[in-house]
Amino acid sequence: MDELALLKDFRLEDASPNGAREHARAALRVAIERRRPPSRRTLVLLGFVGAAILAGAAYAVVHELTVGDPAPEEVRVQPARFGHSAELIPVPHPDDPQLDQARVAGVLDSSAGTVYLFASPNARGLCASTWLEGNRGHQGRLNMPSVCGFRDQSFFGYGNEDYGIVAGHDLGRNPLRLFWGRAGDGVARVALRFGNRIVIVPLIGR
Amino acid sequence: MVLGESKGGVRAEAFGDLFERHFDAIYSYLARRVGPDLGRDLASETFTRAFAARKRYDALRGDERPWLFGIANNLLRRHYRDEERRLRAFAQLDVRRDDVWPNEPRLADALAALSREERDVLLLFAWADLAYDEIAVALGVPVGTVRSRLHRARAQFRAALEKEEALDG
Predict the structure, then answer these.
(1) Which is it for the CA torsion B7, B8, B9, B11, positive or negative?
(2) Chain B: residue whose CA lies nearest to A178
(3) Is pLDDT above 60 for A58?
């Protein structure tokens, strides 16, 4: 007796989806729209890809990691300024990094000094901000370039620190170039292409 | 100073493809076990749970079917009694009725006689077309356990059918 052949036909009439697919699709759409803000684990995945790829004189070595901790207060009270010039009285914008929720995502010891990577949400996704220790602007505010992406996006940012003298380091003469982004747990290295030149960079600072 | 390009929602779109590819198989499996109404709800919940857990899915493990069937089977656990009630009802059907498939009552009876673990393995094999190693992933048990459960389930199922056949004859 082939019991499996008999079983194949049992309640086969129940197998037709009819309207079930539309029902499930609608439920899934609601779930997708209700996606939560990135978790702490997501933030931890943010890390430096590399530093000073183009500047021959620069180097970078990670020597300390405090990822996941809240960013220092001075970072969290920074008026968010992303993609537009700072207003006299800052007006919240949905694209602004919500720096009050910033966490440390990486610490990098570069040739120009310690660089911090902070991760914070905005209304649409996740933002990354970098700060080269000592790099301050008007009224002592932190000069912090930021880049934002949608939730779950593997986004990459590029920061070219090439202006001013920070902690004795002349960035104009010896610029620091930073790349950062988000990659899955299994990604060990990334390939960066500059024209016809490809540089393989191990993922560090995560 | 800073450049950033976005390709937002890529993973969500990929999940849409996964839904379209596997919905029918998941629904079919669940509906045959607990009926179309509950099957519809459980299939829907399977995909919303899978979406919520999509970051934990290890794509390197291969086919996503065992992962999805594993979620579906976990959801089924809350409804084993519904399934058994349903099987007992089918076992009582009168085969002389025109709308009843002659084998239906004895198959239902034989399925109801299996343990839940054996029924899971047998039906994932027969209805979901999962291989031994895929069933092992779906149920979170070693492949050896799948083999022994399936062997036992098939033997018991066959014996129950033969017993019914002898009684009918």
Answers:
(1) positive
(2) B2
(3) no
CA distance A152 to chain B (A): 7
pLDDT number for residue A162: 76
| A5, part of any domain | no
Average pLDDT over every residue of A139-156: 76
CATH number at residue B25: 1.10.10.10
State how many domains chain B has: 1
Is residue A155 within 8 Å of residue A149, measured between CB atoms?
A: yes
- Decide if B1 is inside a domain: no
CB pairs under 8 A between A and B: 131
Q: How does strand A189-194 pair with strand A46-51? A: unpaired
Q: What is the pLDDT of residues A81-103, one digit of tens each?
A: 444 444 455 556 777 788 888 88
- Give the one of A24, A158, A186 whose C-beta lies nearest to B23's C-beta: A24
Distance from CA of B7 to the nearest CA of A (A): 7
* Domain region containing A153: 38-202
The counts of H helices and E strands in chain B are 8, 1
Q: What is the pLDDT of residues A149-164, one digit of tens each?
A: 877 777 677 777 777 7
Is A19 within the bounds of a domain?
Answer: no
**Within a domain: A139:** yes
Query: Which residues of chain B are within 8 Å of residue A186 when distances are taken between CB atoms?
Result: 60
Predicted ipTM of the assembly: 0.76
- Residues B7, A28: C-beta atoms closer than 8 Å: no
Q: A201, A189 in Cβ contact below 8 A? A: yes
Residue A20 C-alpha, separation from nearest chain B C-alpha, in angstroms: 5
Give how many domains chain A has, as a whole number.
1
Give the DSSP letter of residue A136.
Answer: B
Chain B positions touching A24 (Cβ under 8 A) are: 19, 23, 27, 40, 43-44, 47
Look up the domain containing B25 and give its range. 13-168
pLDDT digits (tens, 9 = 90+) for A22-37: 888 888 877 776 665 5
**A21, B24: Cβ pair inside 8 Å?**
yes
- A180 or B59: whose pLDDT is higher? A180
Is A11 contained in some domain? no
